[in-house]
Amino acid sequence: MIVPLSYIGSNFESYKYIIVAGSYDGYGVNGWRVVDQTNTTNGGWQGGGGNPPWSSNIYTYIAPATVGEGSLTQQQALSSFSATDHKYATLVPPISLPLLRNVTTTSHTQISPVENAYPQIYYSNGMYYMFYLSNATGTAELYVSTSSNAVNWSEPVALPGADGSYISSLYWGGSNVYVLLGSSSGLEILNFSTLSPSDLSNYLTYHLQIAPQYATMYISGSTAYILSSYTNGSGYSYSLLAFNMSDMGGSSSTITGSDYLINRALNLSGNSYGYISGWNSHLYVAFYSYNGSYDNIGLAYMSTGGNLLGEYTYRTYENLTGIDLSVNSYGNAWIIYSTGSSAGYGLYVTNITVASAMPRFSNATSITTSPNTMDQPFLYIVQNGRNDSLLIAWHGVAENQNVVWGGLRSSISWYQSSPVTTPPKVPAKSFPYTTVVIAVVVVAVVAGIAVAYAVRIRR
């Protein structure tokens, strides 16, 4: 057992124990099989000799007499109830057990409460820009860090007045850069008319009066498409909203329902947030769904009006922790996804050209792996002719800190990355814990419980 010392004290040899076992019943209250007056009801699938509710459902009890610490036997303890007097069975006093070895005290480190998350990377005029959220100051604020090589990142700068619960999209449209920022009160689009390391605070803010659980954005020409994800009980459903970028105007403003060109539910559902991109007057939507053993990636190909034209599935044979989507100018859809299991975490990419004669997903390429958390992947394509460079970002844990990572993969064969310098860190906290090995008799009882009281537990 691992128990905080603050709960039980450090005088281990003074500890006392009450050890019991019962029989498992999948239909019983809290999984316990009933001990009734006889064992003839319910086909004999229960114990006898009790008188519910005053008797207990305990089958085995290590009584003091069993270990030579008193005269109370198991039979005396379990039969000490009285239905007439409305008295429950008494199993005290507890017993003491010898330690098998010396008690050891270790420290378990708690990850810093500072969360640096939802990274997004953009490339412009020889510079890489990393946008992400951090709660280092007590509230989630938008930060920007810059790099000339996607490896060495500058000290982050907080953007005044920009805060929210998540960043979901960073998109270049014409000469402007747009960042979608979400919160429980609605969506905001930040419009950067210029983007340079010396001027990161010059932007306009456009408000959308919708508040989905998550939303992503794609811009084509003068039209902005917003894909919203809403919980539906078993997973997520998705809806599409579109409006004309010219409605935003030259000053901060609010986009209302009367400005929408499209506002409709999509005939799609999944177990993750949905992500949107596009090409050649078509939209792509990516998400993943659990099939009972692992997660499948779904890719929907549709018209700009939201009419479904095709669906494609990629079997990952993994449990996913995140996904993102980006489409190049040739209609090649790149999907990045993060995986997580007891064996570790990984980051992978796959792609598919929907417009080809026989569209199919490529085999996944591993980007990187880690024993620690990896999620919230982001993908941005920097295209040079038919050669794609993939700007990649993700959230992870390193040295007990929540950090965001940024990297560059060129021609799918060369890769470099590094963690982004984060705002001032809150020191990780260490708490003393104790690991106590009690006695051989406990091991035997636990083994008995494992047989009689099987519990199935199912990222």
Describe the structure.
By secondary structure, the chain is mainly beta. The chain has two domains: 2-107 and 436-452, no CATH class; 116-427, Neuraminidase (6 Propeller). It is built from three helices and 30 strands. It has helices spanning 5-8, 74-78, 440-452; strands at 2-4, 20-21, 60-61, 104-110, 116-124, 127-134, 141-147, 157-163, 166-173, 176-183, 186-192, 204-208, 214-220, 223-231, 236-244, 253-255, 260-270, 275-279, 282-290, 295-303, 308-318, 320-327, 332-341, 344-353, 365-370, 374-384, 387-398, 401-410, 414-419, 429-435. It has a five-stranded mixed sheet with strand order 9-10-11-12-16, with no helix packed on it. Strands 5-6-7-8 form a four-stranded antiparallel sheet, with no helix packed on it. β28 (401-410) and β29 form a beta hairpin. The longest helix is centred in the last third of the chain and has 13 residues, at 440-452. The protein is elongated, with a radius of gyration of 29 Å. Mean pLDDT is 79; it is low at 102-109 and 423-459.
